[in-house]
């Protein structure tokens, strides 16, 4: 077996399949920068295409448009009896991760051009799981980019909350997240003295306590939880960063609370 070293870099951006850009070149000048533009065509007057792609990736914004002009095809020329002309058009930039594998272990990494989110990946359990995640990410990235840890946890919350709601007869309003499911299950258990949680204060005090600990609540939430048919349902709360912070606050007040009753 013969192995051949084709490329080498000191630091590389792997945006998605067929989208890689060199941040730091290899010390050996024989190695050219690794550059796969991911379907993006830099302007003709740009000399350093790699630097252009690195800057475009690091400073991208949701909904950003790029030039996608192209010459009329020979087929179109033939059928429309047209001259060779340029079609002027734009399309949305897409340099986001393609979710062909499941991202894990998110963290920020430094580079000469700034800090950016990175993560490891593992295989999806099924092809359907990958398709669902990609479909949900396409919804989420209409208004966001995956650039920071905050972005990662925001999408994780969006994704896992939607999965949880598929199995619950529950709706969330626009902008609500996984902490709403946690709040509803907790209050149902609190009102009815279940799951090791004791009803130890007035409704007014509980609303105030939840708000002070980062879990938005109002009197109507407790009224809904007190209904006769409103019982907590085990293992229905998505295990997100926001839920973990909320459970930590609840656990301090109610040490006998069992997280495994809540989390999926």
Structural summary, described in words:
- By secondary structure, the protein is of the alpha+beta class.
- It has a domain at 176-262.
- Helix content is 36%, strand content 16%.
- It contains nine helices and nine strands.
- The strands form four sheets. It has a three-stranded antiparallel beta sheet with strand order 1-2-3, with helices on one face. The chain has a two-stranded antiparallel ribbon with strand order 4-7.
- A hairpin with a 2-residue loop joins strand 1 and strand 2 (19-25).
- Helix 3 packs across helix 4 (149-165) and helix 5 (178-191) packs across helix 7 (219-225).
- The longest helix is centred in the middle third of the chain and has 17 residues, at 149-165.
- The chain starts with 8 loop residues before the first strand and ends with a helix.
- The model has no long low-confidence stretch (mean pLDDT 93).
Tags for this model:
alpha+beta, 264 residues, two-stranded antiparallel ribbon, single chain, 3-stranded antiparallel sheet, 9 strands, 9 helices
The rounded distance between the terminal residues' Cα atoms is 48 Å
* Poorly predicted sequence stretches spanning 5 or more consecutive residues: none
Global shape: elongated
**Average predicted confidence as pLDDT:** 93
Helix content: 25-40%
SSE series: EEEHEEHEEEEHHHHHHH
Computed Rg: 25 Å
Report the strand count.
Answer: 9
Q: Total number of helical segments?
A: 9
Strand order of the largest sheet: 1-2-3
Helix and strand composition category? alpha+beta
- The fraction of residues assigned to DSSP E strands is 15-25%
Largest sheet: 3 strands, antiparallel
């Amino acid at each position: 077996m013969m192995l051949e070293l084709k490329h080498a870099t000191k630091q590389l951006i792997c945006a998605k399949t067929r989208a890689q850009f060199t941040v730091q070149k290899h010390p050996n000048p024989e190695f050219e920068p690794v550059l796969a533009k991911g379907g993006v065509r830099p302007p003709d007057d740009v000399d350093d295409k790699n630097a252009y792609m690195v800057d475009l990736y690091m400073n991208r914004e949701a909904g950003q448009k790029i030039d996608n002009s192209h010459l009329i095809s020979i087929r179109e020329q033939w059928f429309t009896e047209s001259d060779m002309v340029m079609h002027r058009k734009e399309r949305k930039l897409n340099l986001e991760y393609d979710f062909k594998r499941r991202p894990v272990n998110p963290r920020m990494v430094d580079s000469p051009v700034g800090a950016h989110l990175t993560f490891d990946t593992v295989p999806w359990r099924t092809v359907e799981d990958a398709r669902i995640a990609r479909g949900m990410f396409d919804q989420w990235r209409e208004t966001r980019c995956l650039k920071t840890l905050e972005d990662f946890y925001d999408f994780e919350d969006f994704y896992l909350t939607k999965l949880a709601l598929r199995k619950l007869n529950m709706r969330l309003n626009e902008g609500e997240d996984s902490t709403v499911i946690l709040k509803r299950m907790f209050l149902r258990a609190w009102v009815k003295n279940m799951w090791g949680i004791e009803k130890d204060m007035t409704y007014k005090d509980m609303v105030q306590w939840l708000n002070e600990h980062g879990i938005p609540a109002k009197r109507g939430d407790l009224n809904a939880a007190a209904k006769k048919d409103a019982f907590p349902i085990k293992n229905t709360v998505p295990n997100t960063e926001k839920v973990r912070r909320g459970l930590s606050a609840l656990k301090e007040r109610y040490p006998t609370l069992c997280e495994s009753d809540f989390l999926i």
